[in-house]
Prior knowledge:
- The chain is mainly beta.
- It folds into 2 domains: 14-46, no CATH class; 53-152, no CATH class.
- It has 2 helices and 12 strands.
- It has a 4-stranded antiparallel sheet with strand order 7-8-11-10.
- The chain is elongated.
- It starts with 13 loop residues before the first strand and ends with a strand.
- Bound molecules: zinc ion (ZN).
- The site of zinc ion (ZN) has 8 residues, from loops.
- Zinc ion (ZN) is lined by residues 16, 18-19, 21, 38, 40-41, 43.
Amino acid sequence: MVRRSRKPIPTPTWVCLHCGHIHTPATLRRLTADYLQCENCKLAFPSKKTSPMKLFRRVTTEEANRILTVGFEDKAGTYLTNQKRTGVFVSTRPLDCNEGVPLAAIVLLEIRLAMLEADISDYEWTEEGKSYREWQLPAAMLNSYATVRVVSTTI
Ligand SMILES: [Zn+2]
């Protein structure tokens, strides 16, 4: 007697936004209700299907080397406000010296942040009439949820 082959039940999978590694329920490591950790690259990504946010930051050559080897570091400042705040500024488009970027910051980094926009809303710096959006994110958040690449090394 020939046994009719049954269609295999599809296994649910989750693809890492950073490296493309495919996870099955057996290899899944859940960090929170909304985020998973990739078993290959160890970065976190949302469990819901989404695309990463594309953000930019201009840094000096030394800073770029440090970010690419050891990761982002928090910086503190008052930034013309009356309170000290720490973190790393990132924006939705590349900024230049007219927008407060030091002249020595010639390396443009593209940061692909695998987070839901709602989860970083507390870190946004809003300002009337600004032509871009800007966040001051904790370095630890970028180091766990983002991939970085150098876009250009000249202004
Ligand atoms: Zn990965």
